[in-house]
Every structure is written in structure tokens, then in C-alpha cells.
Amino acid sequence: MTSTLAQFPQQAAWQRNLAPFGYRQILPARALAPYVQHYWELALPAAQQSPHSELLHHDGGSSLLFQLAGELNINGVRAHQGVLFSPTAAHSAQLSLAAGVQVFAVRFRPGMGAAFWRCAASEFAGEVLGLDGAHYLRFDLPAVTEQLQAAPDLPSRVALLEAALCGALAGSAGIASTLPQTLALLRASRGQQPLTQIVAQSGLGQRQLERLCNRYLGLTAKQFSRLHRVAYSRELLKQVQPEPLADVAYGAGYSDQAHFSHDFKSVVGLTPGQYLRRVRARYHDVEQADAATVHRP
To answer: Which segments constitute the HTH araC/xylS-type domain (predicted)?
Structure first.
């Protein structure tokens, strides 16, 4: 079982913005690829003069972040005993990295991390947990955290975590066979297609769809769709020469700018105009490099 160092031409701008800190992504072994999107690591220099922060935009996925050195927090919640469990949420989050921090993390695909949970995602969705979230997982999180902190290098850490994940997967009931196709339909619609049409295409009933989303995402189908509608809006805003906000709203399927601004701020925590100014101030050419990609599956 081997993982592969990945070079992603379509990384999010915040990820490419961390390249000076040794940010790397690692693809999972084949057996875990349906569940794990990638692993990543970074290390901020101890001489870094101030904490580094980034917005993390949820897409229905979830993450485990292991603090190997230094300090990090998400939304002000610090890594407790070396780990942060960040389930999916209906709102963007703020990741803060202190000077000297070293982080190793795993990113689970939307809904697919549930193969490693002991309960429905709705029981902890939207929370940020430390080792107090260990009882939700199908593997020994404290022991794995300790082993990862003692591992000598990145390949060793990936191998240790993948062994734990594969062990957990062996004892799991797996994922509902209808989940991947249903989530793909919701993502592809970018929130612009009525849920009744999604239900008809998926072959599920409305209640079945909601139970599926509740169990594996901890979100409603409407919340999941809105995450991807706003994600599409963010990409439109990051065009080299963005259209007026009213045109961006129309392009994202909103009937008026007020509804667009309300949805955007409720998810991102910023108005579209504030987000655009932040992007221009922080990323410049970094954002422009992926301006042609307006929707990532």
C-alpha cells in the first residue's frame, strides 16, 4: 500500500499561498482513495513574525489535523493534546497557524469520512474537537496522535495513519451505495437546480435524501447545495476582471443581489465585496492563476 506525492495544478489559492511554508499534498493509497481526498503537511518557520491565518471553505468534507509542533487553532479552538477534528460545517472557518507550527493532516471526501465514524455525522457536525472527539472515531485517536508525533518523516506518518484508517475501514459498515452519486448531483447543480429535480434524478425520496445527508454530512441537502453555490460564486469573484456583483449573483443563479449577499455572508462570514477586497489584498496573482476554473468537482 503506497501513497503518492501529488502536484495539484488546481489547488485552492490558500493552499498555494502556503507553499513557502513547505505545504505538500499526498495522495492516499488506492484502498483509501474513495474515502480520503489527500494528506497534507506544512511547517511555519520559528522566525515567522506573526501568526498566519487562512479561511477554510467547507465543501462537505472533514479533516483531522495533527499538531506536531507549535500551535494552531480553528475558530479559536486550539489543538487539544496535539489534534483537531474538524467535521464538515455549513460555514467557512478560520485556520490560525503560529510561528514554528508543524502540521500533518488528512482530508476526507464529502460524506466519505463517515466510514470512520461510530455515529451519524449530525452528532458532531459544525463542532471543532480535540481528543475529546476520539470516541466518535473507529480507531484509537490518542495512540495514533502519539505515534504520528514520534514518526521521523512524512512517509512514516502517512503509513501510520493509513494503517489505522484501513483497520477502521475493515470494521466499518461502509457507505451507502447511493451517497456518491447523490452528492455528485448536488455538487453539479451548484445550488441552482430545485431539490425536487435532484430527488427525481437520484431515485431517492425527499426523506431518504435528507436522512442520507444527515447521516453522512451532518447537513441538510439545502445546506450542502448552498456550500457549492457559494463556492461557485467565490470562483466567479476571483476572475481576473470580475463582473459587477449583480452579474456575479445572476451567474450563480440568484434572482437578486440581496439574496446573493445574504447567502454569501452566511456561509463565508464576509460580504461578496469584503471577500473580493480580501482576495485582492492577500493573493494577487496567486488567485488569478486559477481564475479560469470556476467550479471544482
So the answer is: 195-278
Closest by Cα among 25, 119, 108 to 60: 108
For residue 10, what is the DSSP state? T
CA distance 116 to 171: 9
Q: Which CATH class name applies to 179-288?
A: mainly alpha
**C-alpha dihedral, 200 to 204 to 209 to 215, nearest 10°:** -160
Checking if the pLDDT of 291 tops 50, the result is no
Query: In whole angstroms, what is the distance from residue 37 CA to residue 26 CA?
Result: 9
Q: Which of 8, 28, 20 is nearest to 165 (CA)?
A: 28
Helix locations, the chain, DSSP H: 13-17, 141-150, 154-170, 179-189, 195-202, 206-216, 221-237, 245-251, 257-268, 272-282, 285-288
The model's pLDDT over 211-238, given as tens digits with 9 standing for 90+, comes to 999 999 999 999 999 999 999 999 888 8
Q: Where are the domains of the chain?
A: 4-170, 179-288
Compute how many other C-beta atoms are within 10 angstroms of the C-beta atom of residue 23: 17
The answer to whether 84 and 96 have CB atoms below 8 angstroms apart is: no
The whole-number average pLDDT for the span 73-83 is 90
pLDDT, tens digit (0-9, with 9 covering 90-100), for 85-103? 999 999 999 999 999 999 9
Contact 26, 5 (CB under 8 A): yes
**C-alpha cell read off for 203:** 431515485
4-170 — its CATH code? 2.60.120.10
Average pLDDT across the chain, whole number: 86
Residues counted in the chain: 297
